[in-house]
Design goal:
By secondary structure, the chain is of the alpha/beta class. The chain contains 14 helices and twelve strands. The strands form two sheets. It has a six-stranded parallel sheet with strand order 2-1-3-4-5-11, sandwiched between helices. The protein starts with a helix and ends with a helix.
Length: about 350
C-alpha cells in the first residue's frame, strides 16, 4: 500500500497485469493469455480477439516472460543460425524472422556458424540447445554439415531449415530457386544471348543445385544446348565470383552473359569483366540472384531475380513456433519468385556476335 501511494505521489503507475487487460476487454484472463501467445487451438471470434489486442495495446501490456518460462520450462527464445551476417541477403530474412517470433511472444537471437577446423568443436547453437537457452533453431545456412542436422534430428530439437532442404525431411521454408534461375535465363535469351554462363554456388548444397538445375531447364526451354564449360562452381563469396569469372573469361568463345548465383558473386564477376577491359552490359550482361538495396548501387545497377526474403524469415519463424507449440509436425513451404527487376546490367549481345551468328 505504501509503495502504491508513493508511486501515485510521484506520478508513477504500476505495470499493467493480465487481469487488467481481461477486465478492459471483458473476457476471462485465460482467454487473454491464449490470444496473446498466439494459441492456434483457441476458438474465439475475430471481434473478441481484436478487443483483447486493443486492450493490451492501450494498457501497453507486456507478458511476464520470466514467469511464463519457469511455468512451462521454456526460454521462449529461438536462435537464427547464419553463416555470414555480412551477406546482403540476410537482413531481410532476419527482419521477417524477428516479426514472426514477436507475434507469438518469443524472442530471437542471432548465432554465427563457426567454420569447422581440425579437432572436435561444438557449434555455439548446439551449446544453446544443450543449456536449454533456446527452444528451437532456424538454420539459414547452406554450409551446415549434414552431420549436425542429423544430430539435431536425433536430439529431438525443433528446427526449420531456411532456404535449403535436407533429404526428405519435412522441415523447410525455401524459395523456388529453379523457377528463379529459369527467369534469369529467359530474360537473357529474350535479349538475344546464346552463350550464357553460370557462376554456381557449391553444387553439393541443395540451394545451389536447384539454381543450377533451373539454369539447365532455362536453356532447354529456349532450345539451347547445355555447355559444361560455361559453368563454374565458385561458392557464394565475392572472392569466389572473382575466381570463377577469371576462369570463364579465359575461354573462347567468351560468354556474352553471366547468371550469378547471388549478389556477391555478381559483384566479383563485374570486377573481373572490367579488369579485362570489357564493359557491362555492352560486352557481357550480368544477372544476379536475390535482390537488395546493394544491387541498385552496383556500377551499372544490377538486374536481379527477386525473392520474398522477408516472408521467408517470417514463415520460417511462425512454422518453428508451430512445431514447438505442437500445432504442426512438419513444414513444407516453397515460395515463388517475386519476379525480375531489370536494371542496366543487361542488354542485347554485342553486334559483332549477333552478326557472326547470322
Amino acid at each position: 500500500g505504501g509503495r502504491l501511494r508513493l508511486g501515485a505521489k510521484l506520478g508513477l503507475r504500476r505495470l499493467p497485469t493480465l487481469k487488467d487487460v481481461a477486465e478492459l476487454a471483458g473476457v476471462h484472463p485465460a482467454t487473454v493469455s491464449r490470444v496473446l501467445r498466439g494459441d492456434g487451438k483457441l476458438r474465439v471470434s475475430a471481434e473478441t480477439r481484436e478487443r483483447i489486442l486493443t486492450a493490451a495495446a492501450r494498457l501497453k501490456y507486456q507478458p511476464h516472460s520470466i514467469g511464463r518460462s519457469l511455468k512451462l520450462r521454456r526460454s521462449f527464445t529461438l536462435a537464427l543460425v547464419l553463416p555470414d551476417v555480412g551477406n546482403p541477403v540476410f537482413p531481410e530474412i532476419i527482419k521477417g524472422a524477428e516479426r514472426g517470433v514477436a507475434e507469438r511472444g518469443y524472442s530471437l537471437v542471432l548465432v554465427h556458424l563457426e567454420p569447422t577446423g581440425p579437432g572436435p568443436r561444438e557449434q555455439p547453437y548446439l551449446r544453446l540447445v544443450r543449456q536449454n537457452r533456446v527452444d528451437g533453431l532456424l538454420l539459414a545456412t547452406a554450409e551446415l554439415q549434414d552431420g549436425f542436422i542429423q544430430e539435431l534430428a536425433e536430439l529431438g530439437v525443433p528446427f526449420v531449415l531456411v532456404n535449403r532442404r535436407w533429404g526428405e525431411l519435412p522441415r523447410y521454408v525455401i524459395a523456388d530457386d529453379q523457377a528463379g534461375a529459369k527467369l534469369a535465363v529467359s530474360h537473357l535469351v529474350g535479349l538475344g544471348h546464346r552463350q550464357i554462363a553460370h557462376l554456381a554456388g557449391p553444387l553439393s548444397t541443395d540451394t545451389a543445385r536447384r539454381r543450377f538445375e533451373g539454369y539447365q531447364e532455362g536453356l532447354l526451354v529456349a532450345g539451347l544446348p547445355f555447355q559444361p564449360e560455361l559453368v563454374e562452381e565458385c561458392g557464394y563469396s565475392w572472392e569466389g565470383g572473382v575466381a570463377g569469372a577469371r576462369r570463364l573469361l579465359s575461354r573462347r568463345p567468351r560468354p556474352t552473359a553471366v547468371f550469378a548465383t547471388n549478389l556477391l558473386v555478381a559483384a566479383g564477376a563485374m570486377l573481373v569483366i572490367r579488369e579485362h577491359g570489357l564493359q557491362v552490359p555492352a560486352d557481357i550482361s550480368v544477372v544476379g540472384f536475390h535482390d537488395a538495396p546493394l544491387a541498385q548501387v552496383f556500377n551499372p545497377p544490377l538486374t536481379t531475380v527477386v525473392f520474398p526474403l522477408y516472408r521467408m524469415g517470417y514463415e520460417a519463424a511462425r512454422a518453428l513456433v508451430g512445431l514447438i507449440e505442437g500445432e504442426r509436425n512438419e513444414v513444407r513451404v516453397v515460395l515463388p519468385p517475386d519476379g525480375l527487376v531489370v536494371r542496366e546490367s543487361t542488354a542485347p549481345p554485342p553486334k559483332e556476335v549477333v552478326d557472326a551468328r547470322a
